[in-house]
Specification:
heterodimer; A: about 210 residues; alpha/beta; 7-stranded mixed beta sheet; about 35% helix; about 20% strand; globular; B: about 475 residues; 5-stranded parallel beta sheet; binds iron/sulfur cluster
Chain lengths: ~210, ~475
């Protein structure tokens, strides 16, 4: 996994609350057995129009505006990523190129899935997010600098917003670590736990019923 | 000893290790696998040369992509077929038990695991699927995970997690006639909002919850995720134990007695405290119908569609306006005036035998309205289907002009051939009314099975409490 330290990039605004994972990546793209290649289907229903049986870019959709072509930061509203647990949503966001999302709140499972895929989720207050939406609208090509070690979002005008962060998640993002390796360091503890439960609750094991 | 919540008890009994920063390595007793969220997990294992840690903790079935007609002919869509074949191959390679597409025990993961006794009280249950919360109805800690976590559980039998806050949703009194667990949970979501439970584990409790069957409790817990909570649960009582007795994978004999003794502790202590509490009165709950594109956009059947212009919160006002535009509905329209193109009775929310009985009781002796193109009944599992046929429910449905299908997720999310066409409007017993959920451009109204059946017959929504037998 790619490590995350500091990112300075263009911010794309997606001004709707409760953006669900079906909207991020509709189900017809869940039939893949790969992790890569989903970026072209990100926000598919909003991003494309049918014209004479062909799919064309919807000029109304924000990500289709040329100014946001290189956006790496997504600015969103509350409860972003609600709905299904599909990890295809962060896969699509990452494959498209987003490395960080700023919103007042995120759905729990989505948030977990983002950590597994090196996407930094930044929770700012609803007022701060609102302010950033105004800034983005007023300043074409608006950029932000995200400093993960300092847990700060810095504007080009030098305002700073601190954001909270789970220490374990931060460590993993900063180092791009694979969870399974970390967990297998506790192999002995897992085996001991399992042995004890096999005694006390044998019905939890299929050969124990 | 401090009083504990059910969630405390379930959590504490699964802690393998705690890091200094409070992150917990949590042991997972049961993992359910299906074809959509597992292929990349298996390929990850294979790439790293890892084996499954404990194969007997896993059980797999294909449910999302399977056809609901003429199953013997196989799956026509090549991408769907590839996913199902990939699951078969992965299970064979890693030694994991699978209920294949033609197995009578096949069905929606969240229907078959409780039905088989694969979900037991006191377990931690995970699945790469957000509706895993369903299994909490049996006094288990159950939650949905992503594919990387599926791989992690396969490889280590554990997950890294942090304890959520606890919330109790207490429902007093008794539900009225014709009002079901589905109406209860929609009313709860309407009250809490779809993000109201974010960061919480919800326990449903109170006399009205205790009065529900295990199947009704599953409907309730199933939609905890629609209130933002990863897990929903109900304490164990005699109803839970009766439900489990004799299930194929439930313990027997001396071990059963030992298990029952342990399970009897799985409820919140009387004086346990919660971080948040919500109270409702069952008698206040009427049959519910969603009118928008989020489950919180819900009202009782006698109501009219709310007017965004009267909403002062600007973000909500915009949400309502967008939703009504998508749904092609006008503010202030009575819900009972909404007419339907299709009706779907199915999904892990409402496709168990009691749901089908409730729908059949309404449909019996009536005819589907000519204006409703299709009314589809999709049982949650092969065994539910067989049971329904033994009771003659399939005949009642067919005589009323409904279609009787093979088990699977079907039009809950339209990954197989069952879907809405653009602009079509559907009364659905499933759990999500998001834009395009049941097919691009499709419009979904969430209701109970009885309300869906009544709508199929009337052609528009009706209050099932006014429904009289012919
Ligand atoms: S029935 Fe619907 S909600 Fe349930 S598992 Fe299948 S797709 Fe998901």
């Amino acid at each position: 996994m790619e490590a995350f330290t500091v990112l300075e990039a263009i911010v794309a605004p997606l001004d709707r609350p409760n953006v669900d994972t079906d909207a991020i990546i509709p189900k017809q793209f869940l039939k893949t057995i790969e992790r890569q290649g989903l970026g072209k289907h990100l926000f598919d229903a909003w991003r494309y129009l049918e014209q004479d049986g062909k799919q064309v870019d919807n000029p109304e959709f924000i990500l289709n505006q040329p100014i946001y072509a290189d956006a790496r930061i997504l600015l969103a509203r509350e409860n972003f990523g609600c709905g299904s647990s599909r990890e295809h949503a962060p896969w699509a966001l990452a494959d498209y190129g987003f490395r960080a999302i700023i919103a007042p709140s995120f759905a729990d499972i989505f948030a977990n899935n983002c950590v597994q895929n090196g996407i930094l989720l930044i929770r700012l207050s609803a007022d701060e997010v609102d302010h950033l939406f105004h800034e983005v609208a007023a300043n074409p090509g608006y950029r932000l600098r995200i400093d993960l070690p300092a847990q700060e979002v810095q504007t080009m005008g030098d305002s700073r917003y601190c954001f909270p962060m789970d220490a374990g998640h931060k460590h993993k993002l900063l180092n791009g670590l694979d969870d399974i390796q970390l967990t297998l360091k506790h192999e002995g503890a897992i085996r001991a736990y399992e042995a004890a439960r096999r005694q006390s609750e044998p019905w939890l094991f299929r050969d124990g019923i | 000893m401090a009083a504990k919540t059910l969630y405390d008890k379930l959590w504490e009994s699964h802690v393998v290790h705690t890091e200094v920063d409070g992150a917990v390595l949590l042991y997972i007793d049961r993992q359910l696998l299906h074809e959509v969220t597992s292929p990349q997990a298996f390929s990850g294992l294979r790439a790293a040369g890892r084996k499954a840690w404990r194969i007997d903790a896993n059980i797999a079935t294909a449910d999302h992509n399977v056809p609901t007609t003429d199953r013997a002919a196989g799956i026509v869509d090549p991408t769907s077929r590839l996913q199902v074949d990939t699951l078969d191959q992965n299970c064979a390679e890693f030694g994991i038990e699978e209920f294949g597409m033609l197995d009578p025990r096949q069905g929606i993961v969240h229907v078959i695991a409780p039905e088989q006794g694969l979900t037991l009280p006191g377990m931690t249950v995970v699945c790469g699927d957000s509706h895993t919360a369903t299994h909490g109805a049996l006094g288990a800690l159950a939650f949905g995970i992503g594919t990387t976590e599926v791989e992690h559980v396969l490889a280590t039998q554990c997950l890294w997690a942090r304890k959520s806050k606890s919330m109790r949703v207490w429902v007093d009194g008794e539900l009225g006639r014709g009002v079901t667990a589905k109406d209860m949970v929609l009313a709860i979501i309407g009250k809490m909002g779809t993000a109201g439970g974010t960061g919480y584990a919800i326990e449903f409790a109170g006399p009205a919850v205790q009065a529900l069957s295990v199947e009704g409790r599953m409907t309730l817990c199933n939609m905890a995720i629609e209130a933002g909570a990863r897990s929903g649960m109900v304490g164990v009582d005699a109803i839970t134990i009766d439900y489990l007795r004799g299930r194929p994978y439930a313990p027997v004999g001396r071990i059963w007695d030992q298990a029952v003794a342990a399970w009897s502790e799985l409820h919140s202590d009387a004086d346990a405290s919660f971080d948040a509490e919500i109270r409702l009165h069952a008698a206040d709950i009427a049959p519910q119908v969603t009118w928008g594109t989020s489950p919180e956009m819900v009202a009782e059947i006698g109501a009219t569609i709310p007017d965004p212009d009267r909403e002062s919160d600007m973000v909500r006002r915009k949400g309502w306006t967008d939703a009504l535009a998508y749904m092609d509905l006008q503010a202030n329209t009575p819900l009972s005036a909404i007419t339907l193109d299709k009706v779907f009775i199915g999904s892990c929310t409402n496709a168990r035998i009691e749901d089908l009985r409730a729908a059949a009781a309404v449909a019996r002796g009536h005819q589907k309205a000519a204006s409703v193109k299709v009314a589809m009944v999709v049982p949650g599992s092969g065994l539910v289907k067989a049971q329904a046929e033994a009771e003659g429910l399939d005949k009642i449905f067919k005589e009323a002009g409904f279609e009787w299908r093979e088990p699977g997720c079907s039009m809950c999310l339209a990954m197989n051939a069952d879907r809405l066409e653009p602009g079509e409007r559907c009364a659905s017993t499933s759990n999500r009314n998001f834009e395009g959920r049941q097919g691009a451009g499709g419009r979904t109204h969430l209701v109970s099975p009885a309300m869906a059946a009544a709508a199929a017959i009337a052609g528009h929504f009706v209050d099932v409490r006014d429904w009289s037998a012919p």
